[in-house]
Amino acid sequence: MNKIFPKDFLWGASTSAYQVEGAWNEDGKEPSIQDTMKPFPNTTDFKVTADFYHHYKEDIKMFKELGLKAYRFSIAWTRIITAQGKVNPKGIAFYNNLINELLENGIEPIPTVFHFDLPQSLEEKGGWGNRQTIDRFVEYCKVLFDNYADRVNYWQTINEQNMLVFAGRVLGQKKKSWKEVFQGNHHMLVAQAKVMQLFHEGIYEGKIGPAPNISCVYPKTQKPEDVLAAENMSAFRNWLFLDAAAYGIYNHRAVQILKSLDAMPEITDEDRIVMRENTADFIAFNYYNSTTVEAFPIEAGAEAKKAADQQSGFAIPGYFKPAKNTHLQKTKFSQWSIDPVGLRITANEIYDRYHLPVIITENGLGQEDTLTSDNKVHDDYRIDYLEQHIEQVYLSIQDGVEFIGYCPWSAIDLVSTHEGFKKRYGFIYVNRDEFDLKDLKRYKKDSFYWYQKVIADNGLK
Ligand code: BG6
């Protein structure tokens, strides 16, 4: 059966600034927490990555050839504002040129304003734990809107705020108590609401929304206790973040869990009002896999556990703990479960709750690729993964979900958050190894030609 998508569907691809740009200290860019962090064992740092900063014109040419209708990227705060609070004209110029280049090539720019790369200068003042970071974020976003909003239709606020909270250690965050983590999380929620207020009250056109990592949560068994555990996990992992962004409220089950962890943040009356009055226009979400949990009774030795990485489970005594799902296969690289149908469940859950348009801003398979002697990459595993997920996007649209686009991760090879360059996601191969930068030449993978056809056909034929 042909699976044809709505006209104007935004077929895209994604990256983030610190993972793709390189040029970490050029043209006035200052260090972010990603630049100052010690690299994970046997992985490269973020100093050069795919060197998109110097190759963006050539890369956008390839994006055009791929047929992309949209490119989801992030803006590096540290290129735009200095530690002294000054605007850096060269940083402004880079994203101006990038946006113009995309538009000239018929590609819609979809920027995220913050993707894990907090300025080191703010980190030194307490990072998101410091309330003043809210104001710094609003000032930064105003500069972005004033400079670029005339050419942008969809803005995303914070990438995977929920993963910064639950798996912060692999995303550049220092070890913190639950209390500190959730105070910082609250500041991010308020910052997001204030930025949405600024955007909506300004002279800007377009839409703005959050970009969390959302995954449906299955109970291990039919036992009511396990079903309850799955609902509680979903409230804490997913709805805490989306209820705040879309309804401006704290999810009631999440509040109970926060209290059980002694991690309820301080919330002022003004915070509650600003959150309530300023909510999202659309929901961008990243989907890699589903989650499975079981009940976790409070008993001797039961301890809360944070997630090892973005897609792994975590445990809260009295609520839930991770469980194995025997129905799902796992990725070779990180042993993340593969669950295309879970994408359909997740998209429907989001749309049921919020009735806002949705776009997937990340979904993909990280794997080691081999460049053959004739410069080809036969990544049929990636094609399989993406095809199965695109089919579920199609079925979600048939279910009635208002899906505006799909931007898999990633447009081009880049550095993984904590597993280096060898974990590749791109449609375009970048010729470098983990530590040997080689010539950084670009090659089209088999998945490039496959996705090119999907876009040209506007679906799966
Ligand atoms: C998401 C992030 O969590 O997953 C990306 O938004 C990240 O920045 C992607 O790269 C894949 O994860 P990883 O750890 O394989 O890079």
Number of helices: 15
Bin the strand percentage.
Answer: 5-15%
Question: For this structure, what is the CATH homologous superfamily?
Answer: Glycosidases
Structural domain tally: 1
Poorly predicted parts? none
Organism: Ligilactobacillus ubinensis
Protein name: Glycoside hydrolase family 1 protein
Family: Belongs to the glycosyl hydrolase 1 family.
Pfam families: Glyco_hydro_1 (PF00232)
Walk me through what this model shows.
By secondary structure, the protein is of the alpha/beta class. It has a single domain, classed as Glycosidases (TIM Barrel, Alpha-Beta Barrel). It has 15 helices and 17 strands. The strands form five sheets. An eight-stranded parallel sheet has the order 6-5-4-3-2-14-13-8. Helix 9 (178-201) packs across helix 12, helix 10 (224-247) packs across helix 11 (252-260) and helix 13 (340-354) runs parallel beside helix 14 (380-399). 50% of the residues are buried. The structure holds 6-O-phosphono-beta-D-glucopyranose. 6-O-phosphono-beta-D-glucopyranose binds at residues 16, 19, 159-160, 163, 213, 286, 310, 362, 366, 409, 416-419, 423.
